[in-house]
Design goal:
mainly alpha, 17 helices
């Protein structure tokens, strides 16, 4: 079994990697494309169970929190198992939760099966597929992630229509069973995540094993008697010194046990990453953007309705945004990879443009300019989301990526839990979606400014180091 720690071969940037890209797309498409259709699928059972808007928000909040907090398990699991095994288990867990939800008869049942069981499985599967993509791609990593995400966005446009047809034909329970069975395609995607095992290592291991077997036979035939005598002498020495060492070992045993326990925790979760100021700056900035992104996506339909748009017009605007989003994910990564742009630098620039575009949108009313703004925002959004997770992989080694990505997921969960209610409170107090959108832009601006300070400081430090190296040494002769 090949885990992430065992992969030393350079990423092939193609070959089976494109099947890994397909597998990652199947996993995300199967497990996350249902999210925008939650209200449509669960509308009738939520009404029957007399669950209000607060209860509905609680179900979705717990789901999002579990998906992100499952990042705590990613690092340790991928050190012991391959990403194919973890992704398969997570996919199976998520689909099982969805199928069990079809028999839901209480809010508690929905939370246990849909939010907790499904959220845990979804988090494990998606994080594992992301690590697999980073293992198989290096120079073409942006293209691979863009292609894998484009299919999911397209599915989010089509799934609501699919859900509507199923509900008309089979009702909630039958539709949920079919959706759960359809989500099992994620297990097929997990099977495509073949571990990257260097061929050179296989050949070397075979040669090493054969040589070792020959050496063992020779030693057993020629040196057996000599080894037995030497072992007897060594055992005698050990027995003599054992009594003298026992007391000292007992005194140090407790301290060593405590130290080794914390050392194992540190190594298991790669907690040294928390000492890296650049990594902390990255995950905090990305978490702020994630909160702004998720809340804007949630509030957009309500904002459009508040300026007098009909449901058909709202749906058209969302479809336009989704189309340009897909276009950006398919086109831009190829261009950026070809010219060698850093993923984090691309995100840094485009996130500010997204914030500015949304603030401009917030001041608009119905009209052509509003549609044009949606087209531009959708394109910019696609550019940022493609590079969101890649910004994490760019600031750490592949060996530490599972733990780094897992801690980033936890960071997203913490920021969502703390800041999303604050945005909701601002909306309730101000009675204005426009103000909320400007607040989200402010959060994105914090990310841009914090990263700007880091980039400037790093550039000045590099320049000072180069200047110091090129200074002529004053040697007194």
């Amino acid at each position: 079994m090949m885990t992430v720690d065992h992969v030393n071969k350079k990423a092939p940037d193609g070959g089976w990697g494109w099947f890994v890209c397909l597998g990652s797309s199947l996993i995300t498409l199967s497990l996350r494309s249902l999210d925008p259709s939650f209200g449509l699928l669960f509308h009738d059972p939520l009404e029957e169970l007399d669950i209000d808007s607060t209860g509905t928000s609680l179900i979705m909040s717990i789901l999002d929190a579990i998906v992100n907090f499952s990042g705590l398990l990613i690092g340790p699991l991928l050190k012991k198992y391959s990403y194919r095994q973890v992704a398969f288990f997570g996919s199976l867990l998520s689909c099982t939760g969805l199928i069990l939800t079809s028999r839901a008869n209480s809010m508690f049942h929905i939370i246990c099966t849909y939010s907790i069981l499904g959220g845990l499985g979804t988090g494990l599967a998606i994080a594992s597929s992301f690590v697999a993509l980073n293992t198989f791609f290096d120079k073409k990593r942006g293209q691979a992630v863009g292609f894998s995400m484009a299919g999911t966005t397209l599915a989010m446009m089509l799934v609501p229509q699919f859900i509507h047809i199923l509900l008309s034909a089979y009702g909630f329970r039958g539709a949920t069973m079919i959706v759960g069975a359809w989500a099992l395609h994620s297990t097929v995607g997990a099977c495509l995540l073949r571990p990257l095992e260097p061929k050179e290592r296989k050949v070397a291991e075979k040669d090493t094993n054969r040589t070792a077997e020959s050496d063992i036979l020779l030693r057993e035939n020629n040196n057996g008697a000599r080894k037995k005598l030497e072992n007897d002498i060594e055992m005698s020495k050990i027995d003599i010194g054992k009594d003298d060492e026992k007391d000292g070992e007992k005194d140090d045993e407790k301290g060593k046990h405590d130290q080794s326990f914390f050392e194992r925790i540190r190594k298991t979760f790669d907690l040294d990453l928390l000492k890296d100021s650049i990594y902390l700056n990255v995950i905090i900035g990305l978490s702020l953007y994630y909160v702004a992104e998720s809340n804007f996506k949630l509030m957009t339909p309500f904002f459009l309705s508040s300026i007098g748009m009909t449901n058909v017009e709202v749906a058209s605007c969302l479809s336009i945004t989704a189309f340009t989003d897909i276009l950006a994910r398919l086109v831009l990564p190829t261009i950026f990879d070809r010219y060698g742009f850093k993923k984090r630098s691309v995100f840094w620039v485009f996130c500010l443009l997204v914030g500015i575009g949304r603030s401009i949108l917030a001041e608009q009313s119905k009209g052509i300019f509003l549609i044009v703004t949606f087209v531009v925002i959708g394109f910019l959004r696609g550019a940022t989301l493609v590079n969101l997770n890649l910004s994490v992989s760019e600031c750490c080694s592949l060996k530490k990526l599972p733990s780094a990505f897992g801690m980033f997921m936890v960071s997203k969960g913490l920021f969502v839990v703390t800041l999303s209610p604050l945005i909701g409170y601002i909306r309730d107090v101000s009675q204005s979606y426009t103000i909320c959108i400007h607040v989200m832009t402010f959060m994105i601006t914090i990310t841009f400014v914090a990263w700007s300070f880091e980039f400037v400081y790093g550039a000045l430090r590099t320049r000072a180091t180069l200047a110091k190296q090129t200074e002529p040494s004053n040697v007194i002769e």
